[in-house]
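User: Please predict structures.

Assistant: First:
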Amino acid sequence: MLALAATLLVLLFARDVSRSAHGSATSRRSEDRSFGAVANSLIESENNFDGRLVLLLSHGGTLSRSVFAARLGQLNQELPSWATTADLLRRPVLVHNVNETLDQLTQERVAAYQTLLRYVAHALTLPWSAGPSQIVADPAASLVTTAQSWNTERLSLAQEPGRVHLLATSSSSAAYFAQHGVAALVNSPSLTLNRGIGIAALQVYPSPLPAGAGVLLLPPVTSVQFGVSVLNASYADQPVTLTLRVTPVNKRGANFTQTLRTTLGPQQAYGFVPGVLRTAASERARVVITISGAPAASGMVISETYQLEMSPSGHS
């Protein structure tokens, strides 16, 4: 809704500009007021963002990792619209180049906020694919400096036709970040990363016949296909390696080993499908399935062992 409102205001600004005859007080008043309406809408969005961010930085330690990550991501998604709105206001150039200044400072603030949010996400080992187009060395200092610059430049239209009052830009989140950093967030028990993975399910084709626990009794087929479902129980990107080892114990069949790797997203599951295992009638083998990359999640295992028994040819 905010983006739609900003777009409509930009269109009104463009309409007034196209209708005006540059140089007259009436046209300048119309241009200045149209610009002021859009600019203030943009600055209100920035200040609202700043308030939400400082609240997240100062009280985010009470949230779970997933909720914190969602709110951080929502903030990050707002930033590109600022850059677009500011860029649309660059023409025509108003007195004192105030709209050019707003555009330049907005682009700098977008890059600084993107860098700051990325830093927070990385400090907490949160999944974060969105990266700023420009890395700002000291994002907090940049946000404070640009706020101070705008709060001087915003007075440019106060004595011009239309007497436009442009809002000030706040930087409370930058001040908080400069003073406290992310120490409270990193040390929060609810945001602490506790990695955990586990074997969620095993599928065998063809389906095993009824047998005792830990025994895979199969009909006399010449090949067997395994499927292993693995769960990432933590809220973080998690590299996982699966290894399947089949070792014959009665001199029938052949050794088989395969290793597969992937990276699971937060609290996601993935189905590994190793290559086809060639078998022999009456073969007996030891099957060991292991996953690595993190400790076992609560109530789960990262290694399972089975006894594979192939029925004799002509029997089931």
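Second:
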Amino acid sequence: MTLPSATCSNAVLALLVLTRSVQAATVTGSVELSGSALKGDSSGAVVWLEPMDAHQAAPTRRERMIQKNKTFTPHVLPISLGSSVEFPNLDPIFHNAFSNFNGQIFDLALYPPGKSRTVTFRRPGVVRIFCNIHPTMSAVIVVVDTPYYAVSDRSGRFTLPDVAPGRYRQNVFFERATPETLSGLAKELDVKGSSQVLPPILISETGYLPTPHANKHGQPYPPESESPYTVH
């Protein structure tokens, strides 16, 4: 008996989904910091696996980075290439989120409490975010061209679910590490089986020196005082 074509297609699709679920691995690991200024907090390290055998496009998502209490939250946000990030203003004052880094240059201009603006990120790279009014506000968006990425929690742990078997390049970003340190953490690995635990990733903060950033015009911020954009 010959099955209808639609039934065959559904059966093949179900088989492919089942095969992928059986083959996909849950990859877990942890980061360990040395020379850290924040004892007991190993959050904010982004780990991603870049496929070496064939490109695997990641689904795009819509994420949020809120502005509240003169703070961007989350401070570190990994996203897949082509995803969008909303920047809602939940403060009772105006904000002006911007980035003048090559990863993605944008300027959302001034907008009031209760409003939100969105940026779509179309280039992989590290995008450092600031506010043109409040010099203490900063954040990082890490745009990766892979579906397999995660950010460490306070204990340093991270999980990469549903990783297809294959050969990968492991990459790491951490805000308080030098480019040389991060380059030395890149390595190749094979993913196979249903679960895999990576060796601890040791990140040194030695040599990192925070530097003041300029406003969106490339000028120093004026002395911070009561914001003229406060809504009374």
